[in-house]
# Entry
Amino acid sequence: FWDPKSRKWGQAHMQARFSILKTFLEAGEGFTVLDYSQDDLSDLTVKMDKEKILTVGRKAVEEYLQKLHVFKCTADYEAGKKLYDDMTDVDEWWANKVRPEVLRRKTPRKVFVQANTFEKDGKVELREYEPTNEDMIRSWSERGVYPEVVVGI
# Structure
């Protein structure tokens, strides 16, 4: 979502998530910390103190969003852009240490496949599918929502 070649974010919502993560990390009081002991960050864990979400975490996000809101409402584009750019800046540590470890641990995106119900001989039959792209297509095609589309799997 952040491209190291262009050094730009590809998706705005991922950029915003990163700014919120940095807000959490900067909140202090041990609210959110990056925990690791290996130089290659192979044991990297994000730890958040759940007991501090409504106090430290809420205050940090509130202050961050309030600053952005004030800059927007007062048309202070330069200050708002500087704040957001600072919060979403991916420095060399994030780019060369954290990002490779996050990508190494990346898991395939989960596929949610809707089950279908059919009436057969006066009884309702539930048909469930495997969480695969193929069964997602099968689920849609067997639903009969688009009878003009024929899917042969």
User: Anything to note?
Assistant: The beta strands are 2-3, 8-9, 32-35, 45-48, 116-120, 123-127. The two ends are 32 Å apart (CA to CA). The longest helix spans residues 53-73.
